[in-house]
Amino acid sequence: MARLADYFVLVAFGPHPRGSGEGQGQILQRFPEKDWEDNPFPQGIELFCQPSGWQLCPERNPPTFFVAVLTDINSERHYCACLTFWEPAEPTQEAVCLEDAAGREEEADEGGSGRLSPGTSGPPGQLFAPKTLVLVSRLDHVEVFRNSLGLIYTIHVEGLNVGLETVVGNLLTCIIPLAGGSQLDSVEDGVRTISLGAGDRQVIQTPLTDSLPISRCSVALLFRQLGITNVLSLFCAALTEHKVLFLSRSYQRLSDACRGLLALLFPLRYSFTYVPILPAQLLEVLSTPTPFIIGVNAAFQAETQELLDVIVADLDGGTVTVPECVHIPPLPEPLQSQTHSVLSMVLDPELELADLAFPTPTTPSSSLKMQDKELRAVFLRLFAQLLQGYRWCLHMVRIHPEPVIRFHKAAFLGQRGLVEDDFLMKVLEGMAFAGFVSERGVPYRPTDLFDELVAHEVARMRADESHPQRVLRHVKELAEQLYKNENPYPAVAMHKVQRPGEASHLRRAPRPFPRLDEGMVQWIVDQATAKMQGAPPAVKAERRTTVPSGPPMTAILERSSGLHGNSARRLEVVRNCISYVFEGKMLEAKKLLPAVLRALKGRAARRCLAQELHLHVQQNRAVLDHQQFDFVVRMMNCCLQDCTSLDEHGIAAALLPLVTAFCRKLSPGVTQFAYSCVQEHVVWSTPQFWEAMFYGDVQTHIRALYLEPAEDRDPSQGWEEPAEGERSALDVASEQRRLWPMLSREKQQELVQKEESTVFSQAIHYANRMSYLLLPLDSSKSRLLRERAGLGDLESASNSLVTSSMAGSVAESYDTESGFEDAETCDVAGAVVRFINRFVDKVCTESGVTSDHLKGLHVMVPDIVQMHIETLEAVHRESKRLPPIQKPKLLRPHLLPGEECVLDGLRVYLLPDGREEGSGGSGGGPAVLPAEGAVFLTTYRVIFTGMPTDPLVGEQVVVRSFPVAALTKEKRISVLTPVDQIPQDGLHLRSCTFQLLKMAFDEEVGSEKAELFRKQLHKLRYPLDIRSTFAFTLGSGHMPGRPPRATKDKGPSLRTLSRNLVKNAKKTMGRQHVTRKKYNPPSYEHRGQPPEDQEDAISVSEELEPGTLTPASALKPSDRMTMSSLVERACCRDYQRLGLGTLSSSLSRAKSEPFRISPVNRMYAICRSYPGLLIVPQSVQDNALQRVSRCYRQNRFPVVCWRSGRSKAVLLRSGGLHGKGVVGLFKAQNTPSPGQSQADSSSLEQEKYLQAVVSSMPRYADASGRNTLSGFSSAHMGGHGKWGSVRASGRSGGLSGDVGSRLAGRDMLGPPQANGAPPDPGFLRPQRAALYIIGDKAQLKGVRPDPLQQWELVPIEVFEARQVKTSFKKLLKACVPGCQALESGPTSFLRSLEDSEWLTQIHKLLQVSVLVVELLDSGSSVLVSLEDGWDITTQVVSLVQLLSDPFYRTLEGFRLLVEKEWLSFGHRFSHRGAHTLAGQSSGFTPVFLQFLDCVHQVHLQFPMEFEFSPFYLKFLGYHHVSRRFRTFLLDSDYERIEQGLLYEEKGERKGPQACRSVWEYVDRLSKRTPVFYNYMYAPEDTEVLRPYSNVSNLKVWDFYTEETLAQGPPYDWELAQVSPEPPEEERPDGGAPQSRRRVVWPCYDSRPRAQPDAISRLLEELQRLETELGRPPERWKDNWDRVKAAQRLEGRPDGRGTPSSLLVSSVPHHRRSLGVYLQEGPVGSTLSLSLDSDQSSGSTTSSSRQAARRSTSTLYSQFQTAESENRSYEGTLYKKGAFMKPWKARWFVLDKTKHQLRYYDHRMDTECKGVIDLAEVEAVVSGTPTMGAPKTVDEKAFFDVKTTRRVYNFCAQDVPSAQQWVDQIQSCLSDA
Hints:
α25 (745-774) runs parallel beside α30 (851-881) and α53 (1654-1668) crosses α56. The termini are far apart. About 19% of the residues have low confidence. A hairpin with a 6-residue loop joins β36 and β37 (1783-1791). It is elongated and about 165 Å long. The longest helix has 31 residues, at 851-881. 37% of the residues lie in helices and 13% in strands. It is built from 57 helices and 42 strands. By secondary structure, the protein is α+β, with helices and mostly antiparallel strands.
């Protein structure tokens, strides 16, 4: 029984003590005046009576009522019912408000309430003061409180004849039953009728069970105000301990909302701050850091605005505001959606019927009270579903004297399948759940509705899930029970309480509320107390029972376990493997092991493993031999690797007894246990795991204490579920708690002691276990602790859970030390001791161990640890002596000649990266990776060789390598080794040749070795000087077979040459510099000229024959060498081919020749990055060039690099302009005194130069009015044509039309064609600007247009080098990702490819190039002037020439193009490739690779136009970064001369020598194999290619994505040929294999090699047959050419054809006979270059393979002259026979390759009639007609060829062809 009310209080308005305008509450009277012993009077009650503050009002307000809740220090709630009414204020009270009486403190006069005489009315400005009647109770009977206070107010207002003292006295002495009407004998006991003595009657119904909350209508109201989603989020917020604030103008609404939210949380109790109505004075409580549920009047909403982490629910507005920084985890699915739908069915039953055509008559919706219970039932069900089976995870740690229960959170989450669920994790960690466990975990207690539900209704709820009506029925049943609990006897509800009349508060009150007589009230209270003391105490008879546990838990969602669904077959494999291990069948076990390791990814297999291993443990020990031990440890490690720190599935728990059982004998007296090999897992350093394990074991042993011996079972198997019919620990505990009161005192004491000693012994046992798993085998190594963040974190964590912690007294906090890095042995021990002590402290305090025992434990722990360390030392010592495990033999990589090992093999595992093919992946195939092997570092490459760890793949060799120079990224990583799953240091190396080495070092590789590897790698990647690179060191000191003084023969002269050149250049530049420094500028003509002595040294001026060199006499000897060397350069050869200038003095040229070769830069004085000889307009003087060059960046002034044979338009290149435009180009920094005249003169100089270029073009000699790119309407743009995406340029008044943006793909005028071809350029007509300048848009702003419109500026937007760099980085990551993408399939690759914008850049390059090609083709010349003129300019210019001129699409032509445009014109290969330490910061920028990619795109679109194969492009792409050859080193010809690189290759080598030039290598290789040759080569007549450039037409280059793990990159041809073959293929009998089939694996084998194309196959077959027939094999090229010739003959109907049809064969093939090659071959080199090309096959029979090997050396030794097919130039000439012989027409063939001029009788003749060796030719001169010569021919068509033996007289058909023949022979001579 309990008092209905504890205190009655009267509170009135009083002045504020500090005299402010507001008043404060004053307690006038309280009853009883003495505090109750069991319930002291709550302080601060006056604040809660008027939560918004005490204020006077100008009018009478109606009385108000609300209930505030106060919580005392013992977490008891006190309900304060407040009824407030207003009375006229007394003068003293008014004075407080009217006068600001500062500092005046008035004592409230006790009798003051009677001052106003009843009759007087107040003055017109009368104010009213509030007065509050307060009832304080610990019971929550709101209606009774409302009625009782209302009755007191009514008596006062209506003046009823009833003593107020009597009513108050009766109220305070009223006693009502607590709860549990059903447990009482009669209705009268459960229903209490009370009367307060004023003729009233009230019925109080007590709830049946007091554990269920009382909600009345509050939950239903809450849902009405906020809606389903908002209430659900508030529910989740309260459960996950967030701060919740309710706002409303109504106090009653606030307390209802808070009450409703608490009711929803049942069965959890809210244990944080709970204040349904917070007074205004206490608003600062809202900034408390702890969670809360608080209600505040909406008037104070502004004050709540700045709260950043509070969820605000506005009840009046129906909104819930969640701040950005707060994340409320939602309920786990499917519970969230199920709950939502059930709630909507309850709240809106008509929703289901809304769409029906014939709606059924609606059932009346439930009353508000009933709906309230239905909503609560939904949440009750939700909790039953969430916490289903929770009792299976309770650990009974103690039964007596009081139960101690712990909840195994990890096991619960694991078995419910909600490990990842944020919501449940937070709920289980919260305080509410801790209270739930301690309150409801007790096994013997009264039960309630929730216990029934969770034990018996789970199956029903699961079955009902998909039937909404059945769910609704269940909800209604539960709601009935909840309703019955609140209203057990609805029939008895009769109230009779007087109420005041209508508007009674407006009537003038007869008098203020009287002062009550304290004595009288106290007397009534005392009377009642005395009566109560006489009566026997009412003991509440609790019906306690054993709480049912319910069915074992199931996962909340039956998830399919995906890939690792553990079928019975998998478990069978695990069982078999273990039985093989223990039976000693090691080979069988080894076969099964990979399958077992895969199966162990699944939970069932891991459980199965633990069970199987248990069977092999006898008496807690199982001694194994070494192999068995290794197997068991590997399987355990594999099990543990997937365990999280919490061990949700109990795998670590099941293995814990096993790791201390399995052992092996190392030597007599030294045993190694499995725990020393499985320590590297995070679970062992997690305190929660050890606590759960400890409590589980304690429960097992305590249960065993109370069981009969027969019932007890092996405690070591405590991890299994109890069998059917066995009593669980909770059942045992429940029984013991029931018997406890009946036991004698001694017996009770004995049980308590037994339990405590059980806990104590387990604590010692666990201290041992923990030391086993935490102390590393080698305690001097502190690595284990360093990697275990767990131990370190624990040290720093505050020990908040354990109050009486003794761990702190044993050792000071670990934080103060320097961490684990330098920890000595004692520190490892110290850290472990502290870890164990904290654990012991926590569990012993929680389990009620006495402090004496605890102290004893603390003394014991250090001894245990020290003893264990000593044992481990012996084990460690002995384990070192074990024979090492047989690791696979290291495979040595094949090295190139001259390549040397820097670091020998370090054992590593090559791990799979993001490319899935290597590890099987979606394409199937074997898991070639991970592979076990070694990494080697050589002077040239980083090489991994090894074998797959998966035994199912077989003995395959895995090779992955890349040149050291190509390394772009290196970072350290920490990874798990694939076999033992041990964390190891690793390296992640990525190269710009699209290789990725992701390696984990083996344990045997120490960190020092790994660090050394990194340092050496870095040193090789970034050498200090270019001379330290492989291309230089190869063949110098390192070449094994090299004669010691090979360089000294020719060396001095070359070195001198280099030195002279550099010296002169520096001298010249120095002088210019001095000249420029003079204060007075030189006159216009002389400015910038070289000083006189240099002017004399070499001069090409107009007085001499244009286009010819100075006579040799005028040159100094060193310069003469320079000139001859320069003449040999590729540029010069190409200029002569193009007819841009000749260097032969024997042939006179007309002065009208527009361009000349100027040697002005021969000393690299004008521009260091240009070649020595340049093509400039004939009319420009050399001294003017110096001045022009200053207008351009890097002095790279415009020079001609190509001329169209058809339109005679020229292509020029230069750097970008210095200034803003042609007007203000020459700025002050270049001239000493910036005068206007000079600025003008320099720009004038530049304009003159451009004018000279324009006038050099024959078609533009007249300056008649001409149109430009702009003046055409889009009408011209329909039609046809296949040209690549260029936009029309509209130009009005200069450059208002934005060409650049159009080139970038916007503003298109006219419809584009399919495939991204642009609109047809119908406007390309002859009336064009003579010269177009393609410049950077930013640079050409404000440029003055040419007044005569002879040139036009085309501004375009270009990307910079840094954009190429970032784009390439992203491309690398896309093509060679470091780890698996989150989403499988091609989408992630395509997305990252698009992000890289690489293809967009390719598109822009092709687009600009096609524009230039178009302009050139239409007869306009083009100057490309972008950036510094060495990156994008080079790309565009090279592409334009490749598209325009078929010569550059041949092997020789492409070489010439690269040498000319990229090498001679100074593309900065070393800078862009970061070749040295200096360039490390700038990073790798693949400008040349981007160009090759563009060529590849064109090759794809025009496969028949290129003589070289795509492999050739990949080969160059690989080797331009590999630094194997010297070709692509350094930044310009000047630097190459400085290093002595440029001319040393010419005839320098006496001894055999490795290739230094990539071209030489290509030549040699081409003779042996057709790998660089494109069989589809058949060029058309049309010369110009116009590729589509839209991104949709571009393909990703397979150079970026393909990989061959069988042999590594195929670009070092020697290595690709000798790749180790799988041993299975070598048959000793030499017979053919049974099957011709060959398995080709993705990413392992090279498909083109396994299945070569038909032509390679046939050439190979020919060679094999020739070998078998004993004939010396022919060269592949001769075979091929003969077949092509025969095919041509068959295809011609009349036997005669025009020369154009010979295009196919007229392409020059630069080949030399093998004799030369064999002299050059490296000594002792073992090159076996068979005909196997990149596409050749390894599946021919062994016998033929051996034969092929035998014949390799003799393969091409027989040189056959198939002269017919090496034709550089051919045609008909008349030749004068020998003495007295007539003139005859013969078919002549000029062969540059063999250096011959051959002649035949007629064109079809295959038999050569004679040969003129060009080596013997002395001169080619014009001849005169002699007797018998053809009559009709012009005499200028005769020419003579003088040889050492005789003079040959020739006559051509006309003058031009004679000129052409002379040119061709001349160029042949200059090439030689």
